[in-house]
Every structure is written in structure tokens, then in C-alpha cells.
């Protein structure tokens, strides 16, 4: 943790309850529900429609395989968090184990990821409004949602956690309800789909791999996007009441979350309705309930997916403000971002991030039909950078432990270091496939531009303030923080 963090002054006299100045206002149940709800968003509810049309029932296998990789990434993050739980976790670990340049790039790239993801989520939310009011321009809904969520993020972190708890509770309850209704249709035969719904839909319409293995592989980048944001629990580390206990519990719920909310839900909806009837850009959950003759159910589902998108965008505004503050505390961003309000929220960072998210309003105005696809591909590549840095930092950490330079974490990643290398190789495969897919290729065109911006700005700052990027001895800084406390 940077020495500037110890010296930071809390604007308005807020109590400095952690080394970073944040209030540890997030309890166990809030962290658990943020972890559960963080991965339930547009990638599942909206993006799955396109993925089903590309891969058919084999999409279930794609979600299961990617889910295993995600669990490995989260366990790597968990081991690092138990070693040193900090709010700017990804950039802090990259800064410590890979060097100042990678910490700088990771911090700004993760900030960009959440800005772009916020645009994605508000785009999805605006499209869901069309279900009830098709005459309302998509950009108008996007503007209203962006402004409203900005004001929501001016509240205290405790209230933010409470709101996210109930947002996530709605999503979790709805998916479980959908699964139970689907099981009822399959076993009891009620509704007009009772005579046609069958688990055999998973292999009767062209087989389990109707588009071949290649078709399944080409959906991996869509599936990876669906899991982006699971790492958000790492950002909450600086504001968790008991991170050493709460965070491992949240991370260990990843397997059953994926099994229930993704694999289980997709099995049910594709058993209710043949996969050939789902269309890109249409939520398969809404379409499934409409097909089985439950229009009210479709409306309820549409409301749930609307809340899911807004919840994810809300989380994006939360994380972007924290990431900008972490960069500023390390001298890698404007100093004004270091200040907190009386309630312990980074007001200026959140304000700037919200202003950038307004770009989503313009995208929805210019290209309302393609907005989601444009931003999904770029969000995927920028979000995966954080995962790459987590895995690479973890490998360096384990090496330092083996050499006796650092203490071992009590929450070790299983199969390390081989599992870290497997996860890195899988991410590399997805990047290659994004280059092949013409719809996702736009992100690879944007990535070099962002890389140039990062490199030029890095060397520009280092030329003016070389001390900012000096290699820090974290152990010495932690001792200094304890003494000052």
C-alpha cells in the first residue's frame, strides 16, 4: 500500500476506519449477495440469446468449462486478498509483484472496463424498457438511468451495500423461481407448453453440438463476458468489516453459483423451448416464458433483468470511483481524486466516471440496434486484462513464498502454479477467437490504441515525477502504517 495512503486526509472529517480511509461498512450478508449478484447481469439475461443461436445446447458445456476457469481465477485472487486485503486490489498486486508500469496500466484499464461495462448495462436496461414502452427512445432511458444511478452512489457505502443486497436478492429469487416453474412444466405438464417441453430438446434439434465444436468455441468470448464482474469482491476488500472471513466464503460460492444460475437455468429454458426458437438480442428467459403462455411471467422476468442491469451499472459506478482514488493515492492520477466525503465515498472519482458513462447515451442515440454488441466486445478484452494480472501476480506471489520472502496465505489456490497457467492459456484462446470473430474483432482494434495511451502517459508521468513509479517495499510500508495507527 502506498505511503500516501497512510497520510491521506479525509475530507469533511470522516472517520478513518481503515488504512485507506474508507469506512468498513460492508457486512457478511452484503458481501455474499454482492458476490452472488455481481455475475448475474446482461451477459446471462441478454447475451445468452446470441450465444444460444450460435452454439445451441452445447452452450451449457461452454458455461460449465468457463465456470471452472473463473473459479481458478477467483481462488488466485482470494489467496492474494488473504495476503493483503486492499481496495485497489488488482492494481496494487500488479504494482507489487509485476512492477509500477503494470500497476498503472491495470488500474486505469480496470477503470475503463467498468466505464464501458456501465455503458453496456445501461444499454441493456434501455432495451428492456422497450418491452413495455416501445415508443420511448432508447437513448432517453439510458440517460435517465445513468443520472439516477450517479445520485444513488452519493450515499454511504453501508447503504450502497444494503441496496445491492436487495438488488441481488431480487435476481437470485427470480432465477430460482424460473427454474422451479420450468421444472414444474417439465414434470407436471401444466401450461400450454406442457405437451411439448422435454429435456430431449437438448439433443433432438441437430444434436447437442448443432453448430459443431467450432460453433461452441466461438461463443467463449460471449460466455467470458457473462462472468465479468465476479472479481468485484476484491474491490470491496477495503470496506469489508471482516475480509479475512467474509471474502473466502464469497469466493467459495462460485461453483454452485455457476452451476445453479447459469448451467441450471440454461438447461431448463432450452428444455422448455427448442433452442432454434431463440433469437439474438432477445432475452431467452423472457422468450421462454412468453412461449409457454405466461405473459405475466415474461413481464416479471423483464423487470428482473432490468434490475439486474441497473444493479451491475450501480456496481460499476462504485468500483470506478475506488479505482480512481487508488491511482491518485499512488500518484498515478489527479490528486483531487484522493478526497473522500463525510460519508466515506470518493465523490469526484464517481462523478468523473459517471460523466464518461454518459457516452453510452450517445451510443444508444447513434446505433440503438448495435450498441450492446459494440460495447460487449471491448468490455470483454479490458475486463480479461484484470484476470490476466491477477493470475500473473499470483504466480509471482507464490514464487516469493517459495523463496521465503513473503508469508504464505491460508487460502491457497488449489493446484498452483499449474492451475494459474491453465487459466492463462484459456484466456489466450479466447483472445485468439475474438480475433477470428468479426463481431468481437473491434475490441482488438481498440486495444492497441489504449495501449499506446497507457505507454505514452506512463513515460510522461515518470519523466516529471520519477518517485511515483519507484519500486515500493510493501512490507516496510505496512509496518509504517501499523506504527502510525
UniProtKB/TrEMBL annotation:
Any Pfam family: AA_permease
Keywords: Amino-acid transport, Cell membrane, Membrane, Transmembrane, Transmembrane helix, Transport
Gene3D superfamilies documented for this protein: Amino acid/polyamine transporter I
Subcellular localization(s) per the UniProt record: Cell membrane
Transmembrane segments: 33-52, 58-77, 97-119, 139-160, 172-193, 213-233, 254-273, 293-313, 347-365, 371-397, 418-436, 442-461
Domain Amino acid permease/ SLC12A: 31-461
Membrane topology note: Multi-pass membrane protein
Main location as per UniProt: membrane
Recorded superkingdom: Bacteria
Region feature Disordered, mapped onto this chain: 1-21
UniProt keyword Aminoacyl-tRNA synthetase, yes or no: no
InterPro entries to which the protein is assigned, alphabetical: AA-permease/SLC12A_dom (IPR004841), Amino_acid_permease_CS (IPR004840)
Protein family according to the UniProt entry: Belongs to the amino acid-polyamine-organocation (APC) superfamily. Amino acid transporter (AAT) (TC 2.A.3.1) family.
Protein name listed in UniProt: Amino acid permease
Source organism (scientific name): Streptomyces silvisoli
Amino acid at each position: 500500500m502506498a505511503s500516501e495512503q497512510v497520510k491521506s486526509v479525509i475530507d469533511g472529517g470522516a472517520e478513518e476506519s481503515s488504512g485507506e480511509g474508507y469506512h468498513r461498512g460492508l457486512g457478511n450478508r452484503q458481501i455474499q449477495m454482492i458476490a452472488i449478484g455481481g455475475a448475474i447481469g446482461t451477459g446471462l439475461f441478454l447475451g445468452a440469446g446470441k450465444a444460444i443461436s450460435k452454439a445451441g445446447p452445447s452452450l451449457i458445456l461452454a458455461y460449465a468449462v468457463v465456470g471452472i476457469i473463473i473459479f481458478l481465477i477467483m481462488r488466485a485472487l482470494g489467496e492474494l486478498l488473504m495476503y493483503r486485503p486492499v481496495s485497489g486490489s488488482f492494481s496494487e498486486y500488479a504494482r507489487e509483484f509485476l512492477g509500477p508500469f503494470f500497476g498503472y496500466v491495470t488500474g486505469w484499464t480496470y477503470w475503463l472496463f467498468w466505464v464501458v461495462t456501465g455503458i453496456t448495462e445501461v444499454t441493456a436496461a434501455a432495451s428492456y424498457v422497450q418491452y413495455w414502452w416501445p415508443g420511448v427512445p432508447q437513448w432517453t432511458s439510458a440517460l435517465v438511468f445513468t443520472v439516477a444511478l450517479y445520485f444513488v452512489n452519493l450515499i454511504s457505502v453501508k447503504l450502497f451495500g444494503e441496496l445491492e443486497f436487495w438488488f441481488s436478492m431480487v435476481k437470485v429469487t427470480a432465477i430460482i423461481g424460473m427454474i422451479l416453474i420450468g421444472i414444474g412444466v417439465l414434470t407436471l405438464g401444466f401450461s400450454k407448453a406442457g405437451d411439448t417441453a422435454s429435456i430431449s430438446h437438448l439433443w433432438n434439434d441437430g444434436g447437442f453440438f448443432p453448430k459443431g465444436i467450432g460453433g461452441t468455441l466461438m461463443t467463449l468470448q460471449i460466455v467470458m463476458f457473462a462472468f465479468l464482474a465476479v472479481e468485484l469482491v476484491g474491490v470491496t476488500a477495503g470496506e469489508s468489516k471482516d475480509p479475512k472471513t467474509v471474502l473466502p466464503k464469497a469466493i467459495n460460492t462460485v461453483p454452485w453459483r455457476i452451476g445453479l444460475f447459469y448451467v441450471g437455468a440454461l438447461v431448463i429454458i432450452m428444455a422448455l423451448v427448442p433452442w432454434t426458437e431463440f433469437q439474438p438480442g432477445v432475452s431467452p428467459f423472457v422468450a421462454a416464458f412468453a412461449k409457454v403462455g405466461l405473459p405475466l411471467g415474461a413481464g416479471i422476468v423483464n423487470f428482473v433483468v432490468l434490475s439486474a442491469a441497473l444493479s451491475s451499472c450501480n456496481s460499476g459506478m462504485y468500483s470506478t470511483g475506488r479505482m480512481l482514488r487508488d491511482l491518485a493515492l499512488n500518484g498515478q492520477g489527479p490528486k483531487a481524486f484522493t478526497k473522500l466525503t463525510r460519508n466515506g465515498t470518493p465523490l469526484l472519482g464517481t462523478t468523473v466516471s459517471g460523466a464518461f458513462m454518459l457516452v453510452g447515451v450517445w451510443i444508444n442515440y447513434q446505433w440503438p440496434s448495435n450498441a450492446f454488441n459494440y460495447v460487449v466486445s471491448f468490455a470483454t478484452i479490458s475486463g480479461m486484462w484484470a484476470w490476466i494480472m491477477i493470475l500473473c501476480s499470483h504466480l509471482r506471489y507464490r514464487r516469493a513464498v517459495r523463496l521465503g520472502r513473503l508469508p504464505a496465505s491460508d487460502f491457497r489456490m488449489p493446484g498452483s502454479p499449474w492451475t494459474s497457467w491453465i487459466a492463462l492459456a484459456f484466456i489466450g484462446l479466447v483472445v485468439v477467437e475474438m480475433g477470428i470473430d468479426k463481431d468481437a474483432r473491434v475490441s482488438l482494434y481498440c486495444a492497441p490504441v489504449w495501449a499506446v495511451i497507457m505507454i505514452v502517459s506512463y513515460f510522461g508521468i515518470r519523466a516529471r515525477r520519477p518517485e511515483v513509479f519507484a519500486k515500493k517495499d510493501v512490507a516496510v510500508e505496512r509496518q509504517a502504517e501499523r506504527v502510525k495507527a
